[in-house]
Amino acid sequence: MERSKTMKNRMFLSGAGKAVALAIGVSALAGATDVDARTVRFTTQLPPHNFAVKNVEMFTKCVSEKTNLEFQIFPSAQLYRDKEVPQAVSSGAIEMGMVTTARFAGTIPAMEIFDVPFATGMRGDVVKMIAPGAKVRVLLDDAIAATGARVIWWIDYGRTVFLSKKDKPIRQPSDLKNMKVRVLGRTYGEFVEVNGGAPTLTSGSEQFLAYQRGTVNAGMTGVASVKSRKLYEVMDVTTFTEHAHIEFVSLINENFWNGLTDNERSTMMSCGQEAELANRQNVSNIEQEAIDFLKSKGGEIITLDEQELATWRASGKPVVESYLKRSGELGKKVYDAAQSYLK
What we know:
Elements: E1 6-13, E2 20-27, E3 38-43, H1 51-66, E4 69-74, H2 85-91, E5 96-100, H3 123-129, H4 135-145, E6 149-164, E7 180-183, H5 186-194, E8 198-201, H6 207-213, E9 218-222, H7 223-228, E10 237-240, E11 245-253, H8 254-258, H9 262-296, E12 300-303, H10 306-315, H11 317-340
Parallel strand pairs: 3-4, 3-5, 7-8, 7-9, 10-12
Antiparallel strand pairs: 1-2, 2-4, 5-11, 6-9, 6-10, 6-11
Helix pairs in contact: 1-9, 4-11
């Protein structure tokens, strides 16, 4: 007999009263007791209303409706900052979490392929190279699996943009000279350095304050974050170079995964595929909504012509060489596989 389930959302405040955790659980399980259900904690640096967190909610709802697993989503870096997530999940300190590929720089340098300037082409190229079963995807998923975590699905967070101010907007590589620039990973930082800037690695949850306090005077982020993190309040110019793409991976601890039933594992994978497809289909619209919103707030949107883009591409070539040098054999395989989609 099929058991009916009622989804229930609850909001929890941390002890400090500021961070919020959204717990998505299953209640009223006919014919089941509380003992039957298990809780899966999911950490993310992103705020609750962010589109990527909504994608996580889609996944957890899908799994909860088909299994006895309950989920608690902890947004806004309440439990772990983004740089801490890979180790937290791999060690089993938490069951699941999402993190950008850039945060694997220290353990899997090849994961930085999406941060290498212009190495992965346009969004359509990226979609193809990390589709389930595609060579780039397989190489990177396998590398993560060796760390004690497993990828359930990928989340496209959109194109990387530069943020600056109208008194000193970023339009060409030389505009980065002597600027303090917020970056979200090592390779992003190298791109700034080769163009004469000073990179500052800053967690996504901390970038608003970094701009507000003048710790940095420019930065990189995903275009949707400019709206969801209210960065338009402190930065009023957005430059579309599309030099990199921000990809999140949603991870589960391997030991926890091995303790799940066959049905729970297959359900997680199928729900992950549904969430990934929905994300890929929606992210372009989400970006356009963010762009329209920024314009409505008086923000300036800079788009580049082909000659300007050629200048940016040329400026990033040393970063490509650096990536290949430090990422070893795996990096070379990933880079070559990525380039095969651009031909």
